[in-house]
Amino acid sequence: MSKAPSFLSIGHRGARGHEPENTLLAIDTGIGLGADMIEFDVQRCGEQLVVLHDPRLERTTNGAGRVSEVSFDYLRGLDAGKGQQIPTLSEVLALVAGRVCLNIELKSADGTAAAVAAVLRDALNDGWQTEQLLVSSFHLPELYEFKQLAPEIPIAVLVCGVPLDWAACATELGAQALNISAEFADPTLVRDAHARGLKVHAYTVNHPSEIAAMRALGLDGVFSDYPERVLAAR
Predict the structure, then answer these.
(1) What is residue 1's predicted lDDT score, i.e. its pLDDT?
(2) Which of 18, 53, 139, 207 is catalytic?
(3) Mean of pLDDT values over 168-173
(4) Is 201 annotated as catalytic?
């Protein structure tokens, strides 16, 4: 693989600024816009792994209820925007087919880590490379479980705020990256993470001036609803 760029353009939920978030259309659009990496969210619906951010269906679909309480058949019959279905993790992997790197965020607990680890181990057997995958979560016990089950796949700790121990939590989990809120992009946190050998990415950064500010702060990349704006800043 070619050397990664010094400031990653990470398409947030595909390319959320252009197409319905977390759909195959948004993900394919993000790739077409030139994103280096595509981020999307995964949670369980019964025995299936579905690509969806919210625990409820109302905001992003024409359905109602909690994802954990509806059937997969009901969920698949919903419109996630522009006639798009809610995709499964396996469908996203098949669509992307190694064209870009992926940041897979674990949204739910209670078995999500184990299920995702199983799917990604199969993906590695099918030709994906470990450096093309990054698994992240705010739910650190779930992230810890994933790391035990698939230690070869890189992980990233998600934080909203500035931890009292700076980036130590990421080191303790054996993470390769720290994904932080742009609102809390503290220079000391960034320096501490880099001193620990971690990459630092900020979410969600859409305005060109904010993208430039994150780059000036020394971050390694940003999540954006408009990945082409990050490329323009580069």
Answers:
(1) 42
(2) 53
(3) 98
(4) no
DSSP 8-class letter at 81: S
**Catalytic one of 12, 18, 139, 201:** 12
How far is 106 from 143, CA to CA, in rounded Å? 8
Residue 220: both structure tokens together: 């390694």
Query: Taking the complete model, does pTM exceed 0.85, yes or no?
Result: yes
Report the distance separating Cα 51 and Cα 90, nearest Å.
Answer: 10
Question: Which residue(s) pair with 201 in the sheet?
Answer: 179, 221
Q: Return the pLDDT at 5.
A: 82
In this structure, the strands spanning 37-45 and 48-51 are antiparallel
Helix (H, G, I), strand (E, B) or coil at 175: coil
pLDDT at 188: 98
Clarify whether 18 is annotated catalytic: no
Across residues 18-26, what is the average pLDDT? 99
Residue with tokens 């030709």: 127
